[in-house]
Structure formats: C-alpha cells, structure tokens
Amino acid sequence: MVGREPERRLLDALVEGARDGTAGTLVVRGEPGVGKSALLDELVAGAGDATLLRTRGLEAEAPLAFAALHRLLRPVTRLRSGLPEPQARALRVAFGEEEGASVEPFLVGVATLSILTTAAEERPVLCVVDDAHWLDAATAGALLFCAHRLGADRVALVLAARDEAWGTFDPQGLRELVLTGLDPAASRALLQARFGDATGPGVVERLVAETRGNPLALLELPAELTRDQLSGVEPLPPQLHLTSRVERIFLDRSRRLPPTAQTVLLLVAADDSGAPDVVRRAAATLGLVDTDLQAAVDAGLLVESPAALSLRHPLVRSAVYQAATGAQRRQAHRALAGALSGHGDPDREAWHRASAAEGPDPEVVAALELAGARARRRGGHVAALAAYERAAALCDDPAKRTGLIFAAARSAWACGRAGQARALLSKARETTDDPLLLADVARLRGHIEVNLGSASEAHRIFVEAAQAVHPVDPARALDIGVAAAVMRTFGADSGTPLPATDALVVPAADDAPRTLCLRHLLVAMTRVAEGEWHAATTALDRALELGDRVDDRDVLWNLANAALQLGDDRAQQHFYGYALSRAREAGAVTAVVYCLQRLCFGQYLAGDLVAVRNSAEEAVSLGRSIGQPAMAAPPLAWLAVLAALQDRDDHEDHLARLQELVAAYPLGILTDPVHDLTRWAEGLRAAGSGDSAGALHQLARFRLPVLARMSAAERIEAAVRAGDMTAARGWTDELARFADATGRPWALATAAFGRALTADRAEADAFFGQSLAHHADAGRPLDAARARLAYGEWLRRVQRRVDARQHLRRAVETFRDLRAESLAARADQELRASGETARRRDPSTPVRLTPTELQIARLVSSGLSNKDVAAQCWISPRTVAFHLRNVFAKAQVTSRSELAGLDLA
After folding, report:
1. Backbone angles phi, psi at 127, to 5 degrees
2. Beta bridge partners of 708
3. CA nearest 89: which of 378, 504, 468?
4. Cβ atoms of 647 and 822 closer than 8 Å
5. Which of 515, 482, 514 is nearest to 498 (CA)?
6. d(CA 30, CA 212)
7. How does pLDDT run across 762-796, given as a tens digit for each residue?
8. What is the H or E stretch that residue 239 is in?
9. Measured between alpha carbons, how far is 56 from 168 in angstroms, rounded to an integer?
C-alpha cells in the first residue's frame, strides 16, 4: 500500500488499544475510490490472532432489517447460547429464525454489545464494516449503539463510509478519519508501480492533478488510454472526471463482454445476497453457463470466492445497473426471485418479485405485507416502511391500499421520519371512511403533535377521534380519551369538549382491570383539569388500586403522571419505577429515557439527589446513544436544577447545552416542563446569590401548575424575601385549596409555611408549628429544612434564640447532606447569630466521581453483582469492573462493603 503510513499507524494503534483493554471506534470516510476498502483490507491482513468480524452495507439490501448484522455476527453464533434469554430471543427474531411477538430494536443492539464483549473475553475482537453508508437502518442503529457503549473492552470497531452519503448511518460524533487523495509523491509512486516507464512525465502530472490522488482513478484511467496517449505522444482527453469517468470505464469494459456475460454482471448487481448458489440458480433459469460467469471474472469486474460473488467496486454496480433497461432489470429480479423461492429467504424473494413487477399484483402485495410485518417484529422499522410503501404502490384495492399506507405511516413514525409519517397519514385520511382506521390515524397524528408539534392541537385531535369512534368501539374511545385528558393536565387544552366522557367512565360488569383503571384515570384527569381536586384524588386512588394488576407501559406511566399531578409522591415513584423496569426488560430505550426523566421529580422531592443525577445522566447518555439528542432536554434541565441548588460550577454549562437543544429541536409536550425547570434552576441560582428580586422574577414565570405546586416553598419564600406579599399570599391560598381537597401532607405543610411567612407575629408561630407537624409525614426533606430555617430565623428575630437553635441545627444538617451549599451557609450564619456554632464536617477532600462511576458505585452499593450492573447499564461486565476499580481508587476503599458505607452524595 502506497502513501498511507499515517492512516495505518492510527488503525494499528486502535487495534493495540483494544488488545490492552480500551475499546475504540473509528469512522473512515472519503470519496469513492479513495482507498477506504483497501485500507480496511490492510487492517484485516494484520489482525493477527484477533477475532475478525466483517460485513458491508449493500445498497440493494436496505429494505432487509439486520441483514448486515447477521453476516457480521455469523462467526460468533455459538456465543448466542450464553446470552440472557430476552437478548437471545431478540437476535433470533431479528435474524428471522423465530416468529412471535415483536422485539425492540434497541434490545438487538444490547444483544450485539453482549456478543462483542463476550467474544472479547476470549481474544481481541476486530469489527470491520465497509460501505457503512449503505447499511440497513436496523444494523446501523445497533452498531452505533455499540460504538457509544463499548468501554473497557477488547473491541476495535472500524466503519468506512462514503463522504456526504451517510444514508441511515449517522456517525453522531464518533471519531473520524477523513481519507483524502494520495499526495503527489505517493501518486507518482503508484503510477510507477502499475505502469512502469510507459507514462510520460507530462501525462503523470496531468493524471496526478486531475485525479487529486484518488487511487482508483489513478489505476483505472490510464488503463483506458492508448499507448500513445499514455506516453504523451497524443494529447489526453480534455476532461478526466473522477467518478463519472471511472463509472464509464467500468461500463465500457462490461459492454465489451459477450451479452451473456453482461447478463451475469447485471444479476450480481441486482442481487443483494452475495451467495454464489443464488446467482448460479438465477443464471441457469436464463440459460447462462459457467463460462459466462468466468468471462466477467476474467474482465476484472467480478470477484469470485468459494463463499461469495461480488462486483469489484460499488461503482461497477451503479454503472451496470443504471445502464440496463427496465425490461432487463425486471428479468434479472424475476430470475433472482425464482432462485430464492423455497430456500428460506422470503423477504429477499418478495423484494425481487416487487422489483420485477410491472403493475398491480395482489400476490406481490401479500408477500410485501408479510415482509413488512416480519421487519416490524424484528424492530426494523425502516425496512417495514419500505415494504408497506411498495406494497401500497402495487395494490389496486382501495381499502387494502389505505391500510398499507397507514402501516407505512406507523413505521415511518417509529423510525423517526415524522414528516413522511404526516404525509402518509394525510393520504390515509383522504382515502378511507372506516371509523376504526380513522381513529387509529388520528391517534398517531396526535402522538406526533404531542412530541413535535402543538400539544393543544394534539388534544383537539384526540378529543374528536374519541368522540367519533365511541359509537362503534368504546374501548378505542376510552384509550384515546385518556390521552386527551392527560394533555389537559399539562396545559394542552384546545377547548374542545368530549361529550362521550360521561358514557366512557361508567363501569361495566365485565371490565378487565386495565379498562376499569382507565375509566378511573379518565375521571381523575378530567377533574384535575377542572380543578376539582377532591374528586380527582378519589378517582386516582381507585385507579392506583388496580395499577399493579395492569402490565401496560402506557397505563403505568399515565398512572404515574396522574399521581404527579395530584402530588402522590409514593405512587408516582412506584409506577414510574414499575414502567422503567418493564421498559428495561423489553429493551425499549425511548420508554426507559421517558421514565428516567419522570423519576427525577420524585427523587428530587424525596431528597435523593444522587438518584436524580444518576437518572438524568443516564437519560442524557441513552439519548445520545440512540441518536435522539432532543430527549436529553428534560434531564439536562434537572442537572441544571441540581447544579443551582448545590452551587456547582457546571450550572452554566448545563444551561448552555439545554439552550442549544431547545433552539435546535422541537420539544412538543416537553416544552413547558423544560421551560419551568429552567426557570426553577435560574431562580435557585439567584436566591443562592442573594438576589431575591431575580429569584422571584424567575420563579413567577412558571407555566405548569403541577411544577408551581412542586416548587411552592421556593416560590413563596422568594416572593416574601423580595417584598411581594401579594404574590406570596396568592400562591399560598392557591396551594391551600389544593391541600385541603387532597389532604397531601406536603401540601398542607407548605401551605402552613406560606401562612407563617405572610402572617403577623401573633399567628406565625402556630403556622410554623403546623408546617413542621405535617412535614413529619410528608417525605420532602428539602422543603422541611427550608421550613426549619425560616422558623429558626423568625425565632431568632423574636429573641427566642435557644428555641431557634434546634431548628437551625437540623436545617444545617439537612442542607449539608444534600450539598445545598448556599442554604447551608445561610442556616449556618443564622445558627451562629443565635449563639451556637454548627459542628464542622470532616474537611477531607470530597470524592469526585464521573456520572458513570457514580451510577455504578450506587448500584454496587445496593448489592448488585458486576453482571447485574452491566445488564442494567447496558455496558459490559468488564467495563463495570474498570469503572469500579476507579471508584475504589478515588474513594480509597478496598471492598464492596466499604463502598456501601460511603456517602455517595
């Protein structure tokens, strides 16, 4: 290999790092012909004793989910037997070896990671992926997930992709090596090695300049020149365009072959299996023989090995396939479909039949529909989308075609193509009057609006759909009605009434627990939106009694959402946690991120700030791993709140990252929660610096009542300290109505706290006492400490310094435990003013753990094994051990029992 010494050293270092236990990923990108594949071949040749796993993307294979991954993992198939059963089943379903319930694509990524890291325990693993820009979307997603989760593993992953042609493969910030043309000296050396002295000096310089050092062009263009042109006796052609010229060279070379050999090349170009037996069977049906295949090999356009038939370069495929007539292409695909028939590959067969179709064909439509269903079960939503769209295009039955269009829309949304999903849904609405299908179309439209558009518009869509479908399918109407009611509780109220509500909430004798739970939820959420707190709480309690008998993530987190709205801290943590565990088991990563975001609310209120940080950091990391950065907005907002409360230096960094996300991505229903959390963080920061007016300015701008109630203690105190007693009394009265109706101890405590801050001297003492009495049952230590601090300040002002000390002392302890530095300093100052000095903590240097180290330390402290921690964090046991060693070193402990005794806050 000429002129690639720096690149080879970089790749060798990557592999050596993997041998030493540090995983590495590198994306090699460059224009066609620049030598990406040759560089990978050189890397493979020097892999030594490493386990080699290799695959490549094929343009014709894009509709076949996990096809490239199947080839990659084939050499380590034996390791699948050691996987946890959910992961093993995910691979069996993904690879078409098992039918049954669908699997989450993310779980296939987790299983792939497990296979790679298990193989790496035996020997280093080198994964090489060529033409990554043509990977099927499901394989690309699984490999990108692995690239982000590999850690202290003996795995090197190298992917090569064409410049500006990522397709479904987006490197998402992975380390890249941009491969450019050879420098002039190396270009001359390559020409000398290939053509010797046959090239004249002027010709060499012209070739070097016009090819910009592209190795493929340097090798192929001179081969098409005459001897006199090559020596410089005759002038060169006026233009030597790189890609188009090289394609033309390959096409001209193919056209000099006999027609039968050209047909062989077209068969291989149309084939996506690379299997010699498939091509040979197809060739036989067209009357072709081995000598025709050999002619293509002899021409240097076809490469044959015992296991594969492939074209020399992707440009050969594009040249041959694009130059063929439509009839020739259809003939080739028809032959390939016949060759695959009965050989256990129905998806490839269906796609070749579709490519051979000249018009509507019910049999092909049925085959594509089955292929789409299989792809959807495997988690290959891009493949399912392609199958359903092609089936719709070949279908002449209007009702059937509309159903296929809706199936395509559902797959488009599942793979993140919202614009395409909306267009398909519009087409489906225009072509059907089936009330059930229209309801399903509306539900999907509403979900898209919830996530990316207008939440109020989503509410309108849900309400109208529930009302329309109620006469023919009350169960569907109930599901959609609950979705609409939840929208209202988050401020997304279009004003559209749902007259069917009264009928939907009436229990039936044969109601399943799920149905009865939804009826109570609909009552609860409707009453929340109307401010009827007592009725809402009663209905929620009935729904919660049924919740543990329901195994449906949507219902579970709607129960948790309702509990959040109504201030039931225990219930919302329980059901978010239950939904999280179910999502982890299924590998449903988007659901995991959603639950982690929501768990932060209860964790913060309960004073478990380590858990808040763990949940938020994991959600940010997972969002990045699956290429969904917008999902990081709520957890980033929580990290900003934590940093503000704890006076940490990373507060501004979190806010800056959050602002970038908010500016770059639509947040849908998350817009207002993210806004309010940002205001909360800014308000805490201002209060901590003594800027009472600034704190009030931020905390007065909340949009969501649920978050206003959650932060009521900070908001009321900020108003009092800023001198706005009207706002303080108004917020207190508002919370008191909620507290009296629901009976929540934390609400009663905070309402009494607000009364104490706004009362005259004669009444304040009693209100403070009531607040602390309710806090004993509230389970919100931060709010309780804030009340104790305010009470201690009041007691000192009225000259009851001895009484003040006990409250200030406990406030200092709580604030220090929570690392709420500004509040601890304020309480400490008050305590000194009362005549007592707070006991100083151990001044030893705090342990600084990374988010991953902290998460692992916390899980290990709870008693989990490395294997169990790895399964929960979706990393390898080896990576867990690596981070755990760092934790032990930083914390200066030598055992798990010592670690369990540490204060991880």
Report:
1. -105, 125
2. none
3. 378
4. yes
5. 482
6. 13
7. 899 999 999 999 999 999 999 999 999 999 999 99
8. none
9. 14
Cα 125 to Cα 678: distance, rounded to the nearest angstrom: 44
Alpha-carbon distance 418 to 421, whole Å? 5
Identify whether the C-beta of residue 94 lies closer than 8 Å to the C-beta of residue 66.
Answer: yes
CA distance 190 to 626: 42
DSSP 436-496: HHHHHHHHHHHHHHHHHS-HHHHHHHHHHHHHHHTTT-HHHHHHHHHHHHHHHHTT---S-
HSE-up (13 A, CA, CB side) for residue 485? 33
Kindly list the strands in the beta sheet with 155-162, ordered across the sheet, starting from the edge strand earlier in the chain.
51-56, 125-130, 155-162, 24-30, 176-178
Q: What pLDDT does residue 195 have?
A: 79
State the alpha helices, DSSP H only, in 470-504.
474-489, 501-504
Residue closest to 341 by CA, chosen among 330, 352, 332:
352
d(CA 125, CA 68): 17
Closest C-alpha to 223, from 250, 256, 205: 250
Taking the C-alpha atoms of residue 235 and residue 102, their distance in angstroms, rounded to an integer, is 63
The lowest-confidence range among 222-236, 512-526, 858-872 is: 222-236
Q: Which two tokens stand for residue 505?
A: 């909430």
- For 768-794, letters b (16+ CB in 10 Å) and e give bebbbebbeebbbbbbbbbbbbbbbbb
Which residue in 592, 584, 167 sits closest to 382, CA to CA?
167
- Residue 309 in contact with residue 279, Cβ under 8 Å? yes
Rounded Cα distance between 298 and 295, Å, is: 5
Residues with Cβ < 8 Å from 43, sequence gap 6 or more? 8, 11, 12, 15, 126, 128, 158
Position 746, amino acid: W
- The whole-angstrom separation of Cα 326 and Cα 315 is 19
Global pTM value: 0.83
Taking the C-alpha atoms of residue 459 and residue 481, their distance in angstroms, rounded to an integer, is 9
Closest CA to 160 of 71, 261, 38: 38
| One-letter amino acid of 554 | D
For residue 684, give the nearest of 746, 609, 616 by alpha carbon.
609
Ramachandran assignment for 2, one of left (phi > 0), alpha (psi -120 to 50 degrees), beta (any other): beta
317-to-41, 81, 257, 296, 478 alpha-carbon distances in Å: 20, 38, 16, 13, 53
334 Cβ contact list (under 8 Å, min separation 6)? 352, 353, 356
Give the amino acid at 348. Answer: R
What are the percentages of helix, strand and coil residues in the chain, rounded to 5? 70, 5, 25
The tokens describing 652, both together, are 């501004």
Mean pLDDT of 582-596: 87
Tell me the two tokens of residue 423.
């267009």
Beta bridge partners of 125: 51, 155
- 734 by DSSP, 3-state: which? helix
Rounded to the nearest 10 degrees, how much is the dihedral formed by the CA atoms of 213, 217, 219, 225? -120
Alpha helices in 665-780 (DSSP H): 671-688, 692-699, 705-710, 712-721, 725-742, 745-758, 761-775
pLDDT tens digits, residue range 323-376? 899 999 999 999 999 999 998 889 999 999 999 999 999 999 999 999 999 999
Amino acid present at 189: A
User: For the purposes of burial, counting CB atoms within 10 Å of the CB of 160, is it exposed (0-12), middle (13-18) or buried (19 or more)?
Assistant: buried
> What residue type is assigned to position 140 of the chain?
A
- pLDDT computed for residue 220 by the predictor: 75
What are the φ and ψ backbone dihedral angles of 617, each rounded to 5 degrees?
-65, -40
Measure CA 192 to chain center: 50
Q: Where are the alpha helices (DSSP H) in 759-904?
A: 761-775, 781-797, 801-817, 821-833, 851-861, 866-873, 877-891, 896-900
CA gap 199, 221 in Å, rounded? 12
Please, what sign has the CA dihedral across residues 555, 557, 562, 566?
positive
Q: Give me the phi and psi of 28, to 5 degrees please.
A: -100, 120
Mean pLDDT of the chain: 90
Residue 687: CA count within 13 A, CB half-sphere = 31
